[in-house]
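queue> pop job 88
queue> type: inverse folding (structure -> sequence)
queue> payload:
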């Protein structure tokens, strides 16, 4: 199961993920991200502190989010390692340069 909670303030929108980034919940994660991209002009944060597992397709979705400008918050060995792998790659040309991948 994956719980996705959206928080917004004047400077950022956060998607807090809790549970498994896997299986049938990946489609909902992709839809939630698309809604944020289409409706929120401010910075976008993906909070992975409550994530317990990320399958390969979940990594691909998170990588796409990174290329499209997401910032990650990660704790724990699993999520920190995944974030490091993802943020080593470049971003899309439209993304803001100089932003860090994890906090």
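queue> result:
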């Amino acid at each position: 199961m994956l719980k996705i909670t959206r928080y917004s303030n004047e400077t950022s929108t956060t998607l807090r993920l809790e549970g498994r980034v896997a299986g049938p919940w990946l489609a909902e994660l992709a839809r939630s991200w698309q809604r944020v991209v289409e409706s929120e002009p401010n910075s976008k944060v993906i909070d992975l502190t409550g994530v317990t597992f990320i399958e390969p397709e979940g990594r691909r979705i998170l990588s796409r989010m990174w290329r499209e400008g997401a910032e990650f918050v990660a704790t724990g060995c699993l999520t920190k390692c995944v974030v490091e792998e993802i943020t080593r790659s470049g971003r899309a040309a439209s993304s803001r340069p100089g932003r860090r991948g994890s906090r």
